[in-house]
Amino acid sequence: MTAAIIVAIIGVLGATIGAVVSALYARRLARVQSELDEERDVRKARRDYEYEARKRLYSAYEPIKFQLIDLIGQALRRISMLSLVAPETGSLPQAATVYEILAPAALVRMLDRNLTLADMYLEPQVSIEYGLMKAAYRVLADSSSIASIYTELSGDHIDIRDEELQPCQVDEAADALLGSTPNDLKTDATTDLPGSLLTFSQFRTVLADIDVRHDKPGLSSITALLDDFTPARRPVFWRALVTQVLLYGCYLDLVLRSPLVQSERLQNLAASLLPQLEHALDVGLRLDKFWMSDERPEYIEVNAQAVRDALPCAVRYYQIRVLSAMNLKTLPS
């Protein structure tokens, strides 16, 4: 075989191998490019989803958050008044008490319908704030836990049969404060989904137009707990209300004082509010002022001893029922 033939064969083999390598390389490059394009599309889809989710989250939560701050103040004021004297059964003050105690819960019901867990996990701050409000809402229907904590701390058994509320009753009572949204903009049809919080005047009209015991048994159950109410006569319900006081204080502390939520701070948040609360109780200050006011009221605005008796139960409830429901691992330490 001559040298020329050998050179030609080598040239053909080289060209063939080069073509094969080039084809393999091109295929690999195309596959890598496809994977990169797919990964880019996934990242873009994720960014788009997170952007829309955050927009949905804040458009749903921020307006309600503004309302919550005001309504929490009203609820704390009403609980202060309730610690001193019960409103007369069937009176306007009793209707106002029911409305102001349930109004924050009604807004939580609105959030329940407008938000998802996936949305809230994008913003741990919102998730924690929502968790505190949800706990304040649910404690009204957690009589067994309140009674268990009371027994643990005092050694005394407490009977909950006359005070027990079921979650469905609290849900129904909270929903009674909500209006409906149009089902179709072209018609006057309505759905059962709540659209906005009724004003107290609208709520009174609802009460006047229905048989509460028949049409709204949940609302009737809560109203019945206020008949001839005293903290001693309704110890479970009273401790649930004081637990709400503490949880509302935690919420307001997060919202009004610092936007940064840290795991360690959250674990100690309830206990950290006690000195402020004790200071307010010492001077007889209404509970809606305890976290920021140095006011000295002319008249006693709260039954300080009744609140103090219930505070250990509230702190313990925060530790074992509220913190355990929060995902503290998502927060900085």
Task: For the structure shown, list the relevant keywords.
333 residues, mainly alpha, 69% helix
What secondary-structure arrangement, pairings included, does this model have?
Layout: H1 3-84, H2 92-114, H3 117-121, H4 124-138, H5 143-154, H6 167-175, E1 178-182, E2 190-197, H7 200-209, H8 212-215, H9 217-226, H10 235-257, H11 263-267, H12 269-282, H13 304-322
Antiparallel strand pairs: 1-2
Question: Which percent band covers the strand fraction?
Answer: under 5%
Q: What is the domain total for the residues?
A: 1
Shape: elongated
Report strand order across the widest sheet. 1-2
The helix-strand sequence is HHHHHHEEHHHHHHH
Question: Could you explain how this protein is built, in words?
Answer:
- The protein is mainly α.
- The chain has one domain.
- About 70% of the residues lie in helices and about 5% in strands.
- It is built from 13 helices and two strands, in the order ααααααββααααααα.
- The chain has a two-stranded antiparallel ribbon.
- Strand 1 and strand 2 form a beta hairpin.
Entry summary:
This protein is mainly α and 333 residues long. The chain has helices at 3-84, 92-114, 117-121, 124-138, 143-154, 167-175, 200-209, 212-215, 217-226, 235-257, 263-267, 269-282, 304-322, and strands spanning 178-182, 190-197. The protein has one domain (64-330).
